[in-house]
Amino acid sequence: MATPAHFTLTQSGEFEPTPFAGSHWGDDHLNGPAVVGLAAQNLESCCGSPDFMPTRLTVDLFRAARSVATSVSVRTVRDGRRVRSAECDVAQEGRLVARATLLQYRRSTAPPGRLWSVSTTIPFPPRPDDGVQTAVDSDAGDWSRSPGDHQNDSRKRFYNSAIDIISGQSNSPFVRAVMVAEATSLVTNLGTKGIGYINGDLTVGLARLPVGEWIGVQADSHWAADGVAVGTATLFDR
């Protein structure tokens, strides 16, 4: 059997969504991790470097992506000695569905001295069984595979081993981190009546790249007014 992936690369250079890219929001909609992961993979492929750390990725999700051929274009905004910036457009049927901006910093040594930090407790799930791709947890529940088991008002976390973005191309640590970070909207917006907000953008800040296939995200805050919500979460690995 072929390894599951969200897209296949066609001879024309477009990306054809597979059934794995489908979303629960609509029969012909693509899920968030597929869209942000596609942008991240193309940005890293075109503009990444071992000397630079992909520190911030911002993705604006302009409209719902559909299950149709998808094109991606990448352009360099700045290629400096210390800072690199690039943009990526994701389009379908001639319309822009998402735009991503990647900021990279050249790696160097840390300055001397101690800094303030906050202590964070992160519970880990049991070692996942082979073939199990996700685990969801809340302070009022216990680890399970379904977000529906955690429709409560307590803190939530999500643990995932993401499938490949493009068939035949393994996800890099950066791409895996971005895909799991998209679940911020899940862990911050899942309440007693399900998920009431659909995320229209995502910003991922990374101090380092994750280690291992499994990455988690734990809710930190949720603020809302007038139908607009902002949520933050922490990415973690073992």
Furnish the topology, listing elements before pairings.
Layout: E1 5-9, E2 15-17, E3 22-23, E4 26-30, H1 32-47, E5 52-61, E6 70-79, E7 83-92, E8 95-106, E9 134-138, E10 156-160, E11 164-166, H2 173-181, H3 184-189, E12 190-191, E13 194-195, E14 201-205, E15 215-225, E16 228-236
Parallel strand pairs: 1-11
Antiparallel strand pairs: 1-2, 3-4, 5-8, 5-14, 6-7, 7-8, 9-10, 10-15, 12-13, 15-16
Helix pairs in contact: 1-2
Keywords, please?
238 residues, mainly beta, 3 helices, 16 strands
Summarize the structure in words.
The chain has 238 residues and is mainly β. The chain is built from three helices and 16 strands. The protein has helices spanning 32-47, 173-181, 184-189, and strands at residues 5-9, 15-17, 22-23, 26-30, 52-61, 70-79, 83-92, 95-106, 134-138, 156-160, 164-166, 190-191, 194-195, 201-205, 215-225, 228-236. The chain has a five-stranded antiparallel beta sheet with strand order 6-7-8-5-14, with helices on one face. It has a four-stranded antiparallel beta sheet with strand order 9-10-15-16. A hairpin with a 3-residue loop joins strand 6 and strand 7. 33% of the residues are buried. The mean pLDDT is 94.
